[in-house]
Amino acid sequence: MTAPRLVLASSSPRRRDLLARIGVMPDRIASPDIDESPLKGESPRAYAERLAEAKARAVPCAADEVVLAGDTTVALGRRILPPADDETVQRRLLSLLSGRRHRCISAICTIDGTGKVRKRTVETVVAFKRLSEDEIDAYVASGEGLGKAGGYAIQGRAEALIRFVSGSHSGVIGLPLFETRALLKAAGIPLG
């Protein structure tokens, strides 16, 4: 029996790069089109899990395919922090995160051609140092955190501003590799 083909339900180059770290290249990439608005009263964990599964379900899956989708949500307490759509939002987010711990919740989901769903969720605690206005201005000027949940990218310049990480570093970037590898193996995807 031939191994199933992997479909990555994400247009994120970071997720492709992370998969490459474990020797996996998607056979097909499809961008899911879903409403990512939080539901009233929805917890950050439930939100991330719902979005990961919704993204996987939004991509057509042939009988010989496995769809992989993920969502990374940044949460401050029960508050879901949005992506930084512009510099004003990014400054506000970085000010909120300055000197505090927050959670990065990374949910992943696979659905195979038979409809079998497999899911994992990983929570990572991240703490920024207390950021000065100059540090926030310099980071915003770099353009690095625009479009990112919480307004930062841990795999870039922001890493030098983070004093503590407990959990999955790759999960903060966008795909917890240990759990992703286990899900793909269970779904029959060959691993490098």
UniProtKB/TrEMBL annotation:
Residues at the catalytic site: D71
UniProt xrefs under Gene3D superfamilies: 3.90.950.10
Cofactors that this protein relies on: a divalent metal cation
User: Under which main EC class is this enzyme filed?
Assistant: hydrolase
- Which Enzyme Commission numbers does its entry carry? 3.6.1.9
Question: What UniProt keywords apply to this chain's record, in alphabetical order?
Answer: Cytoplasm, Hydrolase, Nucleotide metabolism
Keyword Ribosomal protein included in the entry's annotation: no
What is known about what this protein does? Nucleoside triphosphate pyrophosphatase that hydrolyzes dTTP and UTP. May have a dual role in cell division arrest and in preventing the incorporation of modified nucleotides into cellular nucleic acids.
UniProt protein name: dTTP/UTP pyrophosphatase
Native species: Novosphingobium aquiterrae
